[in-house]
Amino acid sequence: MKALDDLGLETSAFKVLCYLSFKDRAMKPSEIAEKVWEKASTVRARLTELKDAGLITATPEGYISNLTPYDMLMKLYREIKEELKG
Questions:
Q1: CA atoms of 82 and 5, how far apart (whole Å)
Q2: CATH number for the domain formed by residue range(s) 2-85
Q3: Considering Cα of 75, then 47, then 20, then 11, what sign does the dihedral take?
Q4: Which run of H or E residues covers position 63?
Q5: Domain map of the chain by residue range?
Q6: Scanning 20, 39, 49, 57, which has the fewest C-beta atoms within 10 Å of its C-beta?
């Protein structure tokens, strides 16, 4: 998935997406911000970007990832593999 591949591992967007991908319920922006150690305003901005990219979905209960933990692990694998090549 190109949108996922375009995210850098060090970005707040990746942290938010990774956190949501491993949760089994919808999360509110304030809950996410507390867990990923980012400002709530930063998390809200990243949630908007991730939603626009089709990586997450907004529900009345909060935000959920459209990706699985497997998707996130494979992203990490690909990044590590590239790093080792370089």
A1: 12
A2: 1.10.10.10
A3: positive
A4: strand 62-65
A5: 2-85
A6: 39
CA distance 21 to 28: 14
Q: Is the pLDDT of residue 1 over 80?
A: no
> Quick check: pTM over 0.85?
yes
Q: Kindly provide the b/e burial profile for residues 41-57, where b requires at least 16 CB atoms within 10 angstroms of the residue's own CB.
A: ebbbbbbebbeebebbe
Q: Is 62 strand, coil or helix?
A: strand
Residue written as tokens 């949108």?
A: 3
Percentage of the chain modeled with pLDDT above 70: 100
For the stretch 56-83, pLDDT in tens is 999 999 999 999 999 999 999 999 999 8
